[in-house]
Amino acid sequence: MAKLKALLFDVDGTLADTEEVHRIAFNKAFAERGLGWDWTRALYNQLLAVTGGKERIQYFVKDFLPEGERPDTDVVELAKQLHLRKTDFYVEIVQGGGLPLRPGVKRLLEEARDKGLLLGIATTTSIPNVQTLLESSLGKRSQDWFAIIAAGDLVQKKKPAADIYVYALEKLGLSSAECLAFEDSENGLLSARGAHLATIITQNPFTFEHDFTGAALVLSDLGEPDAPFEVVQGNAFDKRYFDLELAERILAARL
Ligand code: XBP
Ligand code: MG
After folding, report:
1. Which of 82, 137, 154, 203 could lock 208 by a disulfide, CB 3.0 to 4.6 Å apart?
2. Ligand lying nearest the CA atom of residue 57
3. Is 12 a catalytic residue?
4. What single string gives the DSSP state of each residue in 37-72?
């Protein structure tokens, strides 16, 4: 039976509820360019079907903007320029503080570090966004906690493709049987499962209606000793918050 050696975390929606900040940053970039586009929460919920900010902008232009309202410039180039500014705005907002990690995230990261497990990130979001979130929530050196930060354009095909998780496992030199993945969305689950990883889902306001078939466990969040999680799907072995003991039991139960 394989021993648990690493925990792999998605970022947006898993480490922190970041999507509302992304949405605001997108709208700031559109306003700066005078495009008159407004991604409301309802519209953004639909646009989240496509991962990657550049790809999401192209998706919006092609599938949501009426023919006559589409910009007459090259959409790929426009998306690239808008996304650079959107990332500047996102970084600025997160640096301003006030974006907390979700319940249990810091506790689990610290427990894993103390027990000598490897930590990894596998995300669709852009590298500057990961760096800023980690620094603002865990401190200056916190990027060093992670043996691998696999993000954004490092891979050609973004989630739900498995590429980012396959890349992270390769860099760690580990098999999927030695790791657990933590995700928040259907695209993220499909990606982690595509890399044959047992996956823990923590739902959030943008993803609670997603199909989490195939998840090892679906929770409201990772919980805290004084703020237990809710089990939405699967067996949490009577635990009230997610810790390494539960991680080991889930890995063992799958093998
Ligand atoms: C979520 C995404 C990202 C973010 C926006 O990534 O799909 O595209 O919504 O960030 P994950 P960017 O859940 O894999 O962390 O604009 O930098 O893509
Ligand atoms: Mg996510």
Report:
1. 203
2. 1
3. yes
4. ----HHHHHHHTTS-SHHHHHHHHHHHTS-GGGS-S
Instruction: Determine the distance separating the centroid of ligand 1 and the alpha carbon of 114, expressed in angstroms.
Output: 29
Q: Give the atom of ligand 1 at the shortest distance from the alpha carbon of 126.
A: 17
Nearest ligand 1 atom to alpha carbon 86: 16
* 29-56 confidence digits (pLDDT tens): 999 999 999 999 999 999 999 999 999 9
pLDDT band at 87 (very low <50, low <70, confident <90, very high): very high
Q: What is the DSSP string of 78-119?
A: HHHHHHHHHHHHHHHHHHTS--PBPTTHHHHHHHHHHTT-EE
Find the mean pLDDT for residues 15-34: 98
Q: Token digits for 82? A: 């808008």
Determine if the pTM surpasses 0.90: yes
